[in-house]
Write a structure and sequence with these properties.
This protein is α/β, with parallel strands linked by helices and about 400 residues long. Helices cover about 35% and strands about 25% of the residues. It has 15 helices and 13 strands. Strand 2, helix 6 and strand 3 form a beta-alpha-beta unit. Helix 2 packs antiparallel against helix 3 and helix 4 packs across helix 6. The relative contact order is 0.06.
């Protein structure tokens, strides 16, 4: 089909007839009608032609001229629903004027607030205007995010950017690369194809929590790739006084949550974490391997905040003790929380006892610990889902 035929096919027949009749009629009174018909046609054409646009080094100057024109600005940009920003690769250098025009265009689209699909392709984050990332996250209607061949200067940029999209329903990250942290070694847990999603690890360090945000993908990557850079997934580290903002932003996208606390200094922060919006969590690991079970003060309050009905595995790590029977009342309190509806689909409850605090225990002491836990959680013991690990 030729380009002329394609244009004619998109124009409704009744509009074609009205335009032809108005143009052929010599009466000037019909000129206004012809103008109105052409305007309606233009609106329909713009809605089709500009619902998806892309910004590149070649198209940015053109769209910048549209933005400056008072006639084309409302006609074109209000129709955009899908935006793609295409860079020139890792070594491509954007000119100052090109970046300035891009920031203006993105800012205008953010003010309109109708971008539902955002695609970023072949971009080097280090050479972009810092204001651009902040403006992109102002897209209030964005539900789908695609990031392909993106190069980040440091680890925090990735998580800080993605976590600000509050209404994401789907995302696709491919070849997202950044420099590895010194001595960094990744061991990705095995997940089923139905569990690919976000994983957040919160590691207490004095009064702060170090947040590690992880994406899992079905494509396998080698250990060497894991050490040097991530190609089909990412682990991100950043420090914050609280992880609640990150957890709240991820919402139902979060499928795994790990919390590690080595001392009591961050107990108050951990106890106040807001996980009420993370109702898709399938795997929950709560650990304080240097303290006996009853001294993990934040454990009951955090378990009580779990809202996910999809929870399948619960792992609790604590320090071994020769007087574990003193934790019996604490265990019974935990058992009462586990009786709530959100825990009824559990398939594994694992208690992990660490010997880091008191050294290796005799087998008889380990047996006493197992017996005590089973007696405090009899219903779970009957279901055969209690598991015990000593290391």
């Amino acid at each position: 089909m030729t380009s002329t035929n394609m244009a004619a096919a998109r124009l409704p027949l009744e509009l074609q007839d009205m335009i032809i009749e108005s143009i052929l009629d010599l009466d000037r009174s019909y000129l206004s009608l012809a103008s109105l018909v052409c305007r309606d046609w233009r609106n329909r054409s713009y809605e089709r032609g500009f619902s998806s646009i892309y910004f590149s080094s070649h198209s940015i100057p053109v769209f910048a001229s549209f933005l400056e024109n008072p006639f084309s600005r409302p006609a074109i940009f209000t129709r955009v629903r899908r935006l793609r920003i295409l860079g020139g690769g890792e070594t491509f250098i954007w000119s100052t004027s090109l970046l300035g025009d891009l920031v203006k265009l993105v800012h205008h689209l953010a003010q309109i607030g109708r971008i539902s699909v955002l695609t970023l392709d072949n971009l080097n984050w280090a050479v972009l205007d810092p204001a651009l990332a902040a403006i992109l996250t102002d897209f209030r209607a964005t539900e789908r995010l695609y990031m392909h061949r993106i190069y980040f200067a440091h680890l925090g940029q990735f998580s800080d950017f993605v976590a600000r999209f509050r209404f994401l329903r789907a995302f696709d990250l491919q070849s997202v690369e950044f420099a590895a942290r010194s001595g960094w070694n990744i061991h990705l847990p095995l997940l089923t194809p139905y569990e690919f999603g976000h994983c957040v690890s919160l590691d207490a360090n004095n009064m702060t929590l170090s947040k590690r945000l992880t994406w899992f993908y079905p494509k396998c990557i080698s250990l060497e790739q894991q050490r040097l850079s991530t190609v089909h997934g990412a682990q991100i580290f950043c420090d914050s006084s609280t992880g609640s903002d990150l957890l709240r932003n991820l919402g139902p996208l979060l499928t795994r949550l790990d919390i590690l606390s080595e001392s009591i200094s961050a107990d108050e922060t951990i106890a106040s974490l807001d996980i009420s919006t993370n109702f898709s969590i399938r795997h929950l690991h709560l650990a304080s391997p240097a303290r006996v079970l009853s001294m993990i003060s934040w454990l009951p309050s955090l378990l009580a905040r779990v809202k996910s009905l999809n929870l399948r595995t619960l792992h609790v790590s604590f320090a071994q003790s020769r007087q574990f029977h003193l934790d019996r009342s604490f265990l019974k309190h935990i058992a009462g929380i586990l009786a709530e509806p959100q825990y009824q689909e559990l398939e594994v409850i694992e208690f992990i006892a660490s010997s880091a605090r008191c050294g290796r225990l005799e087998d008889s002491v380990k047996t006493d610990i197992i017996r005590c836990i089973r007696s405090c959680l009899p219903s779970w013991d009957k279901r055969g889902i209690l598991a015990f690990t000593f290391h």
